[in-house]
Amino acid sequence: MELLSLPVCGIVISIICYAVGIQVRKLLPSPFTNPMIIANALIILAIVYTPLTLEQYMAGGNVITMFIVPVTVILALRIYRQRALFKANAIPIAAGCAAGSAASVFSVLFLCRVFGVDQAVTVSLLPKSVTTAIALELVQKNGGIPGLAASAVIVTGVFSAAFSPFFIKFFRLRDPIAAGVALGASGHAIGTAAALELGEIQGAMGGIAISLMGIMTSLIFLFLF
What we know:
By secondary structure, the protein is mostly helical.
């Protein structure tokens, strides 16, 4: 069908799937009913079990991808509102992000070496804990696979959004700054979206963590490659 090839088709499907995810979350509040998880699952099912092909969906999906960077920058407003809090806790926040970036990159590198994973695949998985725009740039410049990198980033963010609230409660992490940094550092934009549900401070700290994780991961890439 020609209608399926129109960019608006992929955009509308994405909006509908995400809207369904929001409604499910309202009916069944749980870390496992994150709207991003539900939307991704519904889109995959639509591509597999309907005449819609991946190429047809991506005609509109690529339009949505264009807005990843501007939407991430919007978090700057929340960061600005909490700038005094950030200044007062700049050192522990930076240290936490540095530790998170190093743990993320070097744990993946170690496991890939242990299991003999191909270099291109390894490069694609390394920036899994930074936002998609930065991850794609790092991967493209170092011989990785952009599609695989994007998938790794999405899966990481979804898992962070789903399980981080559980770990925050399990470890009794009552400090909103620590909770926000943890979500932003582990799950980039998707994790920060989950942090926003916890509160204004958590969301702002998650936005700061996204920026710092991007910078520090880029520096590690310079060291490695």
